[in-house]
Amino acid sequence: MQFKTDKRSVKTRKAIKLAFLKILKNKDISEINITEITNSANINRNSFYTHYKNINNILDDINTDICNYVEKILEKYPYKEIINNPYLIINEFSKVIANNNYIAEYLIFSKSSNKLARKLKNSIYDKFYQSYLNTVDRADPMAKYMISYVISGVFEIYYVWFMEGKMLSLEEIGKHISKLILAGTSSL
Fold first, then answer.
1. Whole-model pTM?
2. Distances in Å between the alpha carbon of 40 and those of 2, 16, 47, 103?
3. Could you read off the pLDDT of 84-98 as tens digits, one per residue?
4. CA atoms of 6 and 119, how far apart (whole Å)
């Protein structure tokens, strides 16, 4: 489906996604109906159908948003730069979380996000591992495991941070994650 990109359309789509995610925190996707979404987003059904065919299209759109954010971040920095200064990329992820709280809430609270979280981890892993291979003459057999370990650890830290009420700032969390990445990848 081709979408309009004018400001009003962007605003309406965002309202629909936010309403959907708000409802998704308390209900399984199979229990959500379009009336709930339109009421929560303060729009009519015609506006909904102008932007989405069905509820699954909203989820697809959110998944695409998240994957696009991650891909843009990963394209900015080569592996060596990330390994030497992981705070660069962690700071970028923190900005995405700060500016798109609904995405973080979706990844944390939604049962529907497990597939996306796995997809994101795999995408990040593939990008990092390929970048790693491009920087070395001979790959360390432990590299796959270390990269997977670090990525899973970063996801888990953000998860705990969110679940524990964000007791530290994103900047503080980012600095701690960076130290852990440096320690975890020092053997590569």
1. 0.72
2. 24, 8, 13, 17
3. 888 988 988 888 878
4. 30
Using the structure block, give the residue that is written with the tokens 């696009």. Answer: 68
56-114 per-position pLDDT tens digit: 899 888 878 877 887 788 788 877 788 888 898 898 888 887 877 777 777 776 666 67
Using CA atoms, how far apart are residues 67 and 117, in angstroms rounded to an integer? 10
Nearest to 113 by CA among 25, 51, 10: 25
How far is the C-alpha of 125 from the C-alpha of 133, rounded, in Å? 12
- 99 with 110: CB under 8 angstroms? no
Amino acid residing at 26: N
Residues 6+ apart with CB under 8 A from 56: 29
Which residue, 106, 79, 57, is CA-closest to 185? 79
**Rounded to an integer, what distance in angstroms lies between the CA atom of residue 107 and that of residue 146?**
23
Give the model confidence (pLDDT) of 1-19 as tens digits: 445 568 889 999 999 998 9
Which tokens belong to 88?
A: 């660069």
Contact 73, 89 (CB under 8 A): yes
Q: Assess contact for 147 and 125: CB atoms under 8 A.
A: yes
Amino acid 145 reads Y
